Amino acid sequence: MRSIFFFWQCASAIDSLAAFYFNNITAGDNPPSPAALNLARHIGELPSLFPQILKSLFEIIIFEDAGNQWSLSRPILSLIMISEQMFSDLRAQILASQPLDQQQRLSQCFDKLMTDVTRSLEPKNRDRFTQNLTTFRHDFRAK
């Protein structure tokens, strides 16, 4: 039980970090604060950090029995919002890793994932993404 709680705390921390980056660097209208600039510099020194975290979260959603998609959907959406190219690259990588007979179905699941999701981290948008992610997982896992 303790490790599951720790896992959800990690997901929440990743969401906070990615949401801060999105709101202050990616989508920020005002000049970034010194804290945002420091974060951007650190992330720039580790360019694979956000893509690797996003990949790990998707692998949990797709292949493991993660009971609480809500907790995972938050950081996934925040990371997708940071870079749509990162998400597109990850999608291609995940599709290529699947057997040919699974690729078409998974591609269709990915197509539906961002339906009616806007480029924001507003609560309604997050809820819509969570619903889509739950459907994504269910549709892919249904044989």
From TrEMBL:
Q: Does the keyword ATP-binding apply?
A: no
Q: Which residues form the signal peptide?
A: 1-19
Kindly list the biological process annotations in GO that this record carries.
protein export from nucleus
Keyword match Ribonucleoprotein = no
Q: Where in the cell is it found?
A: Cytoplasm; Nucleus
Keywords (alphabetical) are: Cytoplasm, Nucleus, Protein transport, Signal, Transport
Its main localization is cytoplasm
Q: Name one GO molecular function term.
A: nuclear export signal receptor activity
Q: Which GO terms describe its cellular component?
A: cytoplasm; nuclear pore
Give the matching PANTHER family: EXPORTIN 4,7-RELATED, EXPORTIN-7 ISOFORM X1
Q: Which family does it belong to?
A: Belongs to the exportin family.
The entry's protein name is: Exportin-1 C-terminal domain-containing protein
What is the source species? Aegilops tauschii subsp. strangulata (Goatgrass)
